[in-house]
Write a structure and sequence with these properties.
By secondary structure, the protein is of the alpha+beta class. The protein has a domain of about 100 residues. About 30% of the residues lie in helices and about 35% in strands. The strands form three sheets. It has a four-stranded antiparallel beta sheet with strand order 1-12-11-10, covered by helices on one side. A hairpin with a 5-residue loop joins β10 and β11. It starts with a helix and ends with a helix.
Length: about 170
């Protein structure tokens, strides 16, 4: 009994020392919840390659080709799905950059990443409102996603994108 309790305590200590394990929710969802450019929470769902937006539980009109959100920098940005590239086009049409990821802010100020996962999204919280986003933090989250996700899963794919798209920036 004593050995078992030591083993459990040791395992919890090891897991607890990984900040990414303790502070990074990462999950699949059929919608993306983010801070809209007006400061209100907005949800977006896929409708083919277009989006359906809702706020306060009510659908906001017809499907749209793009949506606006608050990015990590606190500025309003636009995202649309570029079918020919199978990536998001983020920014104004003329200056949109191609990315597998959307870097968005939640209404509580936390910063998240999202990537398309079929008819839904795979999302991961990168930093709480008061946390810095740094290369070591991104590297730690990528390593955690690799360790905790099955091969060929959205978590592993996001880990790859973190290394190639976010750290490289």
């Amino acid at each position: 009994m004593r050995i078992a309790s030591w083993a459990v305590a040791g395992a919890l200590t090891i897991l607890g020392t990984t900040a990414a394990f303790a502070t990074t929710p990462a999950f699949e969802d059929n919608k993306l919840n983010f801070k809209g450019c007006d400061g209100a929470q907005v949800s977006v769902r896929w409708l083919g390659d277009d989006f359906q937006l809702s706020a306060g539980g009510k659908v906001l009109g017809k499907e749209r080709a793009s949506f606006e959100f608050v990015g990590w920098d606190g500025k309003c940005s636009t995202a649309r799905w570029a079918t020919d590239q199978a990536k998001f086009a983020v920014g104004a049409d003329a200056s949109a950059s191609s990315s597998s990821l959307i870097r968005f802010m939640a209404t509580d100020g936390s910063r998240w990443l999202a990537m398309r996962d079929g008819d839904g999204f795979f999302v991961a919280r990168i930093a709480a409102n008061d946390e810095e986003i740094s290369s070591p933090r991104i590297t730690e989250i990528a390593a955690w996603l690799e360790r905790s996700s099955r091969e060929y899963s959205p978590g592993r794919t996001l880990a790859k994108h973190l290394k190639t798209e976010v750290i490289a920036d």
